[in-house]
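Hi,

I'm pasting everything inline rather than attaching a file, because the server keeps stripping attachments. The sequence lines come first, and each chain or strand is labelled.
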Amino acid sequence: MLNYAMAVASAGRASVMSLDEERMRELYFFTARTLETAHPVPFGALIVNTRSGERLMRATNAVARENDPSAHAEVRTVRLACKKLRCPSLAGYTMYSTCEPCPMCMANALWARLDRVVFGATIADANRHCLQIHVAAKQIARRADMACVVEGPVLRELCCSLFTHPNMQRAFRTWSTR
Amino acid sequence: MLNYAMAVASAGRASVMSLDEERMRELYFFTARTLETAHPVPFGALIVNTRSGERLMRATNAVARENDPSAHAEVRTVRLACKKLRCPSLAGYTMYSTCEPCPMCMANALWARLDRVVFGATIADANRHCLQIHVAAKQIARRADMACVVEGPVLRELCCSLFTHPNMQRAFRTWSTR
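And the predicted assembly:
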C-alpha cells in the first residue's frame, strides 16, 4: 500500500515536471523569436492558470525598446496580465521565466501573489553574459510575508542557449557594462 | 591642518545631510497630499540631479489605481523619469523615497544606474502596517554588479507619520493581508 502511494506520488511529481518542461519549451521558442529581430533578448516569461494551465499572458524583455529599466520580461508579463484581469493580484497563477528572476522580478512576483515561479537558466548563467544582482529568487521568497513556491532550473541548457546564440552574443556587446 | 581638513569634511557632510533632509521634507509634503484623497498612500519618491539638485520627477504609489503590482512609488518615478529623458539610465541622479525601497524597487534603482538612494522610514517601520519582504535595500545594493550608494533613515519619524495618519490607518484596513 505504501509502495502504491509512493508510486502515485512519484508519477504525480513526474507529470508536474513534464508539464513544467512542456511550458518552458513553449516559452523558449517564443523568446527565441526575438533572436531574429533588431532587439534580441534571452529573457521571456509566461503566466498560466495554476489549475487549468490556461495561458494568460507572455512577454519578453523590453528595457531598450521602452526606455524602462523595469521592463524585464517577468515584470512586463505580470503588468500586462494584471491589466487584462483588471486586478493587481495573480493568486491562482504560475509564472515561467527563461531565466531566474532578479530581485526586482521576484519581489514583483511576490507582490503580485503568484502561486509559483518556475525558471530556466540561473542568475549565475546569465552573469556570464551581462551584469546581475546576486541574490537568489528562492532567498527573496523565503524572506517575504507572502508565499510563493520557486522552482528551477528547468530545461537549463535549452534556456542557456538563448544567451549563447550568435545574434544574442552580438547584441550583448551593445549592452551597458557599467 | 588635519583639524581644518576634518572640519571642512565634517561641514561638507553636514551640508549634504541637510540637503537630504530638505528634499525628504519636500517629498513628505508631496506624499501627504494623498492622505486627503480616495487613495491615501504613505509611499512617495523624488528623483533629482545629483550635482545640481534639479528636480526631475516625483510620484506616489499607484498599485491600486493602476492595477499594477510594480507601481510602487520608486518604480513609477524611475519609469516616468526614464520616459522623460528617453533613456533607460539615470546615472547622475539621486532618488529620495519616504520608505526604504523593497527588493523590487532597490533592484530597479540599480538597473536604472541611479547614483544614490536616500530613504525615510525603514522596511521594519512599514511592516507594522503592511506586508513586506525582509531584505534591506543596502544588502541588495551590496550584492549587485552595479554601484549605488544607499543612505537612510533620514527624517524617519516624519516619514513614519505618513503611516500612522488616521486616513492612512483606515485605508490599510482595505489592503490585502494574504
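Confidence is low (pLDDT under 50) at residues 1-8 of chain A.

If the labels don't parse on your end, tell me and I'll reformat.
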